[in-house]
């Protein structure tokens, strides 16, 4: 685990992200060009996030409101971050009927495996948020169709 100190920064305004820039030595160990899952602590409190590249050789972590509240920190504070790459995929709990439908469709299984974790989570949440069994069943059928076509949910 690598440790560094940095300042929590925000662009200001409602909805603006609060971030911390990773030192170049830390960012270079993550690899070039893409978002990388990381875990660690901020001010001693555990977190899971993604280190994202800026395009200038630096990377940053988004520090959510929940993370800041748990750590008792705010934008402008200097914090100590201990972080490590987190290569183990996050577990996603699927509705059992949806999981069975995915297994029955080779096209949907192939499409599901090609989806990034964020798109998988969106499908799983959309199905889980159904208020009635009929809605859940319609959403499962629509999801299998869209996934089999290689499509993501909109919005």
Break the fold down into its secondary structure elements and pairings.
Layout: E1 2-7, E2 9-10, E3 18-22, H1 24-30, E4 36-42, E5 45-53, E6 59-62, H2 65-71, E7 78-85, H3 96-104, H4 106-114, H5 117-128, H6 133-148
Helix pairs in contact: 3-4, 3-6, 4-6, 5-6
Name of the CATH class of the largest domain: Mainly Beta
| Shape type | elongated
Please name the CATH architecture of the largest domain: Beta Barrel
**Residues in helix, %:** 25-40%
The low-confidence parts are none
How far apart, in Å, are the first and last alpha carbons? Answer: 36 Å
Structural class: alpha+beta
Number of helices in the DSSP assignment: 6
Give me the count of strands: 7
Number of domains: 2
**Mean of the pLDDT scores?**
84
**H/E element order:** EEEHEEEHEHHHH
Describe this structure in words.
The protein contains 6 helices and 7 strands; from the N terminus they run E-E-E-H-E-E-E-H-E-H-H-H-H. The protein has 2 domains: 2-85, AF2212/PG0164-like (Elongation Factor Tu (Ef-tu), domain 3); 96-148, no CATH class. The protein has helices spanning 24-30, 65-71, 96-104, 106-114, 117-128, 133-148; strands spanning 2-7, 9-10, 18-22, 36-42, 45-53, 59-62, 78-85. The protein starts with a strand and ends in a 7-residue tail after the last helix.
